[in-house]
Design a protein that fits this description.
Layout: E1 36-39, E2 42-45, H1 46-58, E3 72-73, E4 78-80, H2 82-110, H3 116-123, H4 128-134, E5 146-154, E6 157-164, H5 170-185, H6 229-236, E7 243-248, H7 256-268, E8 284-288, E9 300-304, H8 316-324, E10 329-331, H9 343-348, H10 353-360, H11 362-371, E11 375-377, E12 410-414, E13 428-429, H12 435-447, E14 454-458, E15 464-471, E16 476-493, E17 500-512, E18 525-531
Parallel strand pairs: 3-18, 4-18, 7-8, 7-9, 9-10
Antiparallel strand pairs: 1-2, 5-6, 5-16, 11-14, 12-13, 12-14, 15-16, 16-17, 17-18
Length: 534
């Protein structure tokens, strides 16, 4: 789900046992006023930060949003400058066209109109039944309806490390957007404008009203996507289906609480959702186990399980059969090509440059190459004596083992179709490993090509950002130097060439600056993003 930069906070338990008060329209009493702190050149009273952080914590749903996991709470949303916010708004269109081109490239490779090695790479390690589903005529033009890139903020600009078509965080980001929009528009604690360098916090148990900030308070004050962008975007991908089933595997069980909160909100009717209405009635939304297959004609199914996990999803075959017969609407489709990191290697492959220019246009190609790191597929096939790997000046992958630590600003990770393909489980950063460990990682990647190809990617170090979080145990705001990952969520509504990708919201994850790979830990700060006022 979340891949190299997934927030995996482990078995974290809050040490704060103070009972959270119920959330009232005027928000909890913050207690005695504290000294002022300065963030990014603007004074923000500690009283304001504490009131906001306590209101956010008190608004957490009783069942939480991630199973057994916690994060640090920010006293303000994470601001982005207007230029970056505008780039993120436009990025969805580019990524949707990229997915269309990827789909066409695979089909043409199978048909012999593009190099055969493209389909051979993408099919490697997959069972024949799954390949058959991917090539089924009914799914010919089907694309993922959710696109979520992992974006790192660097000194040179933003970098997209990978794309996720089955992402976690949809319900979480919907909740964050709504909660912070309500608090900041109401001026809770006098927060005023969140500074560009402000973010942070640390949650306890969700009590009180369980995340039910009133919709009247949840007015947009610059939150990207607005207070309801995630909800509107998510419901838009199901068309006019009268019933929507979110099928969650055990592998994705960590994210089940956020989807249960989201469906509960949709069922409450408070959002006034219209995009999912059918025959004048609101659509029904339910979270289902991996065994659920009691769908009816016209229903929609959100596939919240990855395709490597099909053996553990009893209902999968039945759902695929119904979708192929066009009796139900299934998203994302059973096409493992969209769960592969090697798509960026195909983008950088010079043999395909003409195809990308024709299908994306010169402008989109330039934009993607400017923000996608150079990526290679670790195919151990020998090169001719006079040839070298482009961009590396190596004649054999094994020569990677002889690079100096400074030359090893490279990341190895499994491409896809593996339980090691998410959560940074397979990630190896060359400059952060000893020569022996790096050599072992290279050897493992080459040995794995037949069943689970690896990719090699240039590492771009995230820049440091100043962040803050609220320590409930100490009762004070804590500054933190961190590194940020942004996860924008794009929802694709409409059919065929008329389909459009709309930004629903942006989740910021800020980890301590000494962490080179933002994969999350108990010190991680999560916050929604907003447009900076300046």
């Amino acid at each position: 789900m979340n891949l190299e930069t997934r927030v995996d906070m482990g078995e974290i338990r809050s040490k704060n046992h103070v009972e959270a008060q119920a959330v009232r329209a005027d928000f909890p009493d913050p207690g005695p006023q504290r000294n002022e702190v300065t963030t990014g050149g603007e004074a923000m009273s500690a009283l304001s930060a504490e009131r906001t952080a306590r209101a956010v914590r008190a608004a957490l749903p009783p069942g939480g949003l991630f199973a057994g996991l916690r994060w640090r709470i920010a006293p303000a949303s994470f601001p982005l400058d207007r230029a970056l916010a505008a780039d993120l708004e436009r990025l969805g269109r580019v990524l949707l066209q990229f997915n269309r081109a990827v789909n066409l490239l695979y089909r043409q490779s199978v048909a012999g109109k593009q190099p055969a090695w493209v389909a051979e790479w993408l099919d490697r390690g997959k069972p024949s039944e799954l390949i058959a589903w991917q090539r089924h005529p009914s799914f010919k033009n089907d694309l993922p309806r959710v696109i979520r890139p992992d974006i790192l903020l660097t000194d040179e600009g933003f970098v997209i490390t990978e794309l996720d078509s089955v992402p976690g965080g949809i319900g979480l980001t919907a909740w964050l957007n709504r909660t912070y929009a309500a608090l900041e528009s109401a001026g809770a604690g006098g927060c005023g404008r969140p500074d560009l360098d402000a973010a942070g916090g640390a949650p306890a148990e969700g009590r009180g009203r369980g995340g039910r900030i009133s919709s009247e308070l949840a007015r947009s004050v610059g939150i990207l996507g607005g207070p309801r962008g995630m909800v509107d975007g998510f419901t838009s991908i199901f068309g006019d289906a009268p019933r929507v089933h979110i099928v969650v595997s055990q592998e994705a069980a960590t994210y089940r609480p956020e989807m249960e909160w989201l469906t509960g909100e949709l069922e409450s009717g408070e959002w006034g959702v219209k995009s999912g209405e059918c025959g004048g009635q609101r659509a029904e939304y339910r979270v289902r186990d991996a065994e659920f297959d009691r769908v009816q004609s016209g229903d929609a199914v959100y596939r919240f399980f990855e395709l490597f996990d099909l053996e553990n999803v009893r209902a999968a075959r039945r759902l695929f059969e119904l979708a192929s017969a066009r009796r139900i609407r299934l998203t994302p489709p059973p096409k493992p090509i969209f769960e592969e990191k090697m798509l960026f290697a195909l983008l950088w492959n010079r043999n395909l440059r003409g195809f990308w220019r024709q299908e994306l246009g010169e402008s989109f190609v330039r934009r993607l190459l400017a923000c996608v790191p150079v990526t290679w597929v670790m195919d151990p096939a020998p090169l001719p004596p006079h040839a070298a790997l482009p961009g590396l000046d190596l004649t054999d992958w094994r020569q990677l083992k002889g690079l100096s630590q400074r030359e090893r600003d490279l990341v190895l990770k499994v491409s896809g179709y593996s339980d090691q393909a998410w959560g940074a489980r397979s990630v190896a950063l060359g400059s952060d490993l000893s020569a022996g460990d790096w050599g072992a990682a290279v050897d493992h990647a080459l040995r794995s090509f037949a069943r689970s190809p690896y990719v090699l990617q240039r590492y771009h170090k995230p820049r440091t950002v100043a962040a803050t979080w609220f320590d409930f145990e100490r009762g004070q705001t804590i500054p933190m130097a961190g590194r940020a990952r942004l996860c924008p969520y794009y929802f694709v509504a409409g059919e065929g060439e008329a389909a459009r990708a709309r930004l629903g919201g942006v989740l910021a994850t800020i980890c301590p600056a000494d962490k080179k790979i933002i994969h999350g830990m108990q010190e991680a700060i999560l916050a929604p993003c907003r447009v900076d006022d300046d």
